[in-house]
Every structure is written in structure tokens, then in C-alpha cells.
Amino acid sequence: MALSFAVVASSSSIMCKAINANNHSHLQDLSYIKRAALISDKSAGFTSPHPNFGCVIVTPSAEVVGEGYLYAQGTKPAEVLAVETAGERCRGATAYLNMEPGDCHGDDTAVSAFVQAGITRAVIGMRHPLQHLRGNAIRALRSQGLQVDVLGEDMQSKLVEEARKACLLVNLPFVHRAASRVPFSVLKYAMTLDGKIAASSGHAAWISSKLSRNRVFELRGRSDAIIVGGNTVRRDSKYHEHHLCPFGNKLADPRLTARHGGGHMPIRIVLSQSLDLPEEANLWDLSDVSTVVVTQRGARRSFQRYLASKGVEVVEFDILNPRDVMEYFHDRGYLSILWECGGTLAASAISSGVIHKVFAFVAPKIIGGKNAPSPVGELGMVEMSQALDLIDVCFEQIGPDMLISGFLQPIPDLTPTIPSEDETFAIDPTVAPFETSIIFFYKTWDLYGAFSNFSPHPIQMPDEDGNYVTWFSVEHYYQANKFIGVSNPLAQDCIDKIKSAKSPEEAARMGRLTQRRHPHLVRSDWESVKIDVMYRALKCKFSIYPHLNSMLLSTAGSVLVEASPHDLFWGGGRDGEGLNYLGRLLMKLRSEFLGESSAASENTCIAL
């Protein structure tokens, strides 16, 4: 009996050690996933919009040997950067990803990087939010023999849910875009202890502390756009016009910039039904960032022309309401919007269901005033039981102020729509996600995103001397060509900066800003040659990448439309009023490639 008891005791000890080892390994997995989510957030505030990808590579001995994050859409993937850092130490290692790779260009870059490097296991925080990409990389990795564990599916526990939530939060704007037709919207305001966002006179500078204002600049830098209402513009401009600062200068009306010294700058959006706006405002200064004014159709045509003369874009709606406006900017590809409006517009946005999160900075001040404005106007509620409760409320002290934040709407749950491995196209392989007669493309993450100028496909094009030069994308080449041949050192400097821009978005921003600020640097024949410049770049792109050529040829019989609602030259516009020159050029190329293919086939038949 003693021997038997000893054997049992020994077996129990071994089992306990195994359980402890598994628990330790499980906790390590969750720790590295959280690390991947944290790393992915490093790109926020540089180039937007784009999803946030992070990757951590860990050896069997729990040594972190490689890390990487996606800087922007069109730059080197996080997985590739991590593999390059780890080198040979990838053999037998585990890769931790906050989100499933989104190889939407037919390249399978991330999957190939793992397979070639010898990664044997991948732990993924969440599947890709976009339906046409969801599960693709997971299936591809598993088909290559890698063990793939997905949080919430292959790994389940309370701690797993916490780690998965961290992955959701870092890509919340992207998740919301996948789940709805509006961008992720945050309402931000600063108020006194007695709930006032300004004095009765309209003066609001400054309610919160400098530390709080720095946090606001950070929030702006992480957003695609900032929204204010006409009342805010009128009130601030009117007050600053008649009041002087202590040094005798007029107080500057708001610029709504991120003020972070570089990187991504969100556009400014002004919502005004009547268009009763001041002629002089910093928002009409487009030297650093553009402004879009959204109004009701027919409002103050003369002022619309005035804004247009300043370069301000005006967008009209038949009926101006926040949901329609947000759906429009969703179609423009925006992921996140920061609302810094007054109480009237804030109430309208909340009632329309487009506000997802609230950031309220509460300053330890009391100003009083019967007519002093409050952060949210009339919502039609008459009982406290009707009040809207925030979800996942957080409290943070920032200097003397208190920041209270929380969600007005729950985080979308994508789990019920996740397909199994065998589900995709299993029921009906002929079902296509889009109407076959018209194929729309715009952002690089779309199903036909590779048709975009911003897709990460370098091209080689001859320069003025006939030497071939590599450009990171078609957009890089196109923007630089605006200044080629101009005998001005500033033009060459601009070309060099565009050429070395880290992402297509940055190249586009540089080219457009220079064109707007220094129109004399733009080549005199640009308007007559820009279509040919684009055509030559596209022909190169779709000639040197076989999978892109196949994708283009597969659309035969369909109309290709660049679904930009605001670019009326290259895109199709909101209601099909655009010229759609990008779609036209792609269809022209498709016809040429099909003709070449047909001719080659005929020659083959003759030879036989």
C-alpha cells in the first residue's frame, strides 16, 4: 500500500506541475497579446485612417526576439518587420498578433513571412473585422502547418476576454466601421463643476488646465476629423473679434489642429444649416490642413462661392442631420471623428445615435450664469430614469481636472458573424459580395482595394534622363510628377521628400499641400498631362504584378468605379456625378490586356 500511495502521490505531483506549467504558458500568451496590442497603438496619430497591427515574436524559452507595428496602410506589415528583427531566432517561435493579418492585395505577405521564417505557432487576439478578409489568414496559416490559437475561440477564460478586449479597443474605430455605416465618434467637452462650457458672454478660454488641453491635442491627432457646429464658429469668432488678450492682441479663434509638430493632421468639419458663418476665421486658413463645410442645399450661395475661393470644400445635403453626415464621411473612408461642438449639435448627434464615446473634462471651477451654455442641449427627457448611462466608465485625474470617459454604445460583438473554416463559399460559391455589373473600389482594405493608387505596390518608372527610379506606390509617383521639370530648387526638394515619404497618404499630403501653398512650383502643363502620368503608372503596376493583372482581368464585363464621394475628377462622386477617370483608365488597361491576351492566343493557335 505504501508503494501504491507513493505512485499516486508522484502522479499527482506531475499532474500539478503540468497544470501549473500550462497556466503559466497561458498567462504568458495573454501578456504577449496585450503587448502586441500596445505596440500596434504606436502608429496612432501619424497617418490615418488605417487599422492598427502589432506583432511580437517569442522563442520557446520565452525570449522576445522581434517586434513590429504597421506604420500606415501601404507600408511594410508589422509581421514582416517583426520577422526581420528576429532573423534566424524565428525558428520554432510563436508570433503574437493583436489582429488577424489583412493581406487584401493577393500578396499573402504576412503569412509568407511566418512560413519562410519558420514560425510554428500564431496566437491571434481577434479575427479581421472586415467580412471579406475575416478568417483568410488564419486558414492560410493553418494550411501551412502552423498552430493557430484565436482568443475567444481556441482559448477561453475571463483573462482571455480581458486580453481580447484590449485588442478590440486598440482597433475600435475599425471595428465600428465594419459593424456599421458610421465612423467611431467621440464627443469631447470641458466643463466647470456647475456644468458650464462657457461664460454667459461666450468666453470659454480656458476652462480646463494645460495638461488637459494637451490630452485634447492627443485625441485630435488620433482622429480623422474634428467636427464643430456653426454656433461654435460664430460664438468664438464674435467673442475674439471684440475682446483682447492681456498683451493687447486679438485672441485667435480656434484652429482645431493637433499641434503635435508633424504627422497626421485631422481635417476640420463645420456643420452649419444656415451657413451664417464669419468671413474671417482661422478655419478658412488651409495652409496646414483642409476644412470641409457641410450645409443644407441652397444655403447662402454667395458665401459658398466665397469659401470655394479660399479652397474650402462645401458639401450640401437636402436635409442636414448628423447620421446622414456621418454616413457620408464613412463613405469617404474616415474611421474616427472627434466632436468638439456646442450643446445643440451634441444633443442632435446623441439623438441620432452617432456618438459612441464621451470624454468629459471637469475643472474645479464654478462660473454660474443662467444663460451660460451646457455641454448637451435638449434631449427630450423628462425623468431621471430616461438618462443615458455610460458603459465602462473610467476616471483619471489630469492636473487639477478630472477626466470622465465612457461609452454611450457597447462595443460591437463580431463573434456571431465569424465564419468557420469550411463555411466560406460552401453554401453557394457563385454568390459575390458585390453587384457584378459595377465594381466599386476606394480604400486599400476594400475587396478590390489593390486598384487604389495607395496600395503598397512599388513601381519602377524612367526619369527625365531615362534612368529607372523606384517609387513606393503609384500615388508617390503621381504626386511627385506635379513638380518634375520645374527649374526651382524647392520643386526638386519637394520631389525628394515625396519620394521618401513613408506611406502613400503622406506622399499625397505633401503633394497637395505644396500645390496649395506654392502653386508656382507646379509644372505649367500639369492639367494636360496628369491623366497620361496616371495611365503610365497604372500600366506599370498592373504589368509587373501578375496577381494584380489577374484581378483586373477578372472584372471583365463590369464597370469599375473609384467610389470617392468627394473627388469628382478621379472618382465617381456621391451620386455618380464624378468623372471617374481612375476607373476609366483601369477599364482602358483591362481592354488592352485582354486584347493582348486574345492576340497571343490567336498566334498560339496559328503556330499549332
Task: Describe, in plain words, how this protein is organized in 3D.
The chain is α/β, with parallel strands linked by helices. It has three domains: 20-173, Cytidine Deaminase, domain 2 (3-Layer(aba) Sandwich), CATH 3.40.140; 181-407, Dihydrofolate Reductase, subunit A (3-Layer(aba) Sandwich); 431-604, YbiA-like (Tetracycline Repressor, domain 2). Helices cover 37% and strands 16% of the residues. The strands form four sheets. The chain has a nine-stranded mixed sheet with strand order 10-9-8-7-11-6-12-14-13. β1 and β2 form a beta hairpin. α1 (2-40) packs parallel to α5 (158-170), α2 runs parallel beside α3 and α13 (489-499) runs antiparallel to α14 (504-517). The longest helix has 39 residues, at 2-40. It is globular, with a radius of gyration of 27 Å.
Salient structural properties:
Tetracycline Repressor, domain 2, Cytidine Deaminase, domain 2, 3 domains, 608 residues
- Beta-sheet strand percentage? 15-25%
* Mass-distribution shape: globular
Cα-based radius of gyration, to the nearest Å = 27 Å
Query: CATH architecture of the largest domain, please?
Result: 3-Layer(aba) Sandwich
- Supply the CATH superfamily name of the largest domain: Dihydrofolate Reductase, subunit A
Q: What is the helix fraction of residues, given as a range?
A: 25-40%
**CATH fold-level label of the largest domain:** Dihydrofolate Reductase, subunit A
As for the number of domains, it is 3
Global structural class: alpha/beta
Q: Just give the CATH class of the largest domain.
A: Alpha Beta
Major β-sheet strand ordering: 10-9-8-7-11-6-12-14-13
**Distance between the terminal alpha carbons, to the nearest Å?**
87 Å
Q: Are there runs of 5+ residues with pLDDT below 50, and where? A: 1-9, 14-20, 239-252, 416-435, 604-608
Overall mean pLDDT stands at: 85
Enzyme class: oxidoreductase
Protein name: Riboflavin biosynthesis protein PYRR, chloroplastic
InterPro entries: CMP_dCMP_dom (IPR002125), Cytidine_deaminase-like (IPR016193), DHFR-like_dom_sf (IPR024072), Eubact_RibD (IPR004794), NADAR (IPR012816), RibD_C (IPR011549), RibDG_C (IPR002734), Riboflavin_Biosynth_HTPR (IPR050765)
GO molecular function: 5-amino-6-(5-phosphoribosylamino)uracil reductase activity; diaminohydroxyphosphoribosylaminopyrimidine deaminase activity; hydrolase activity, hydrolyzing N-glycosyl compounds; NADP binding
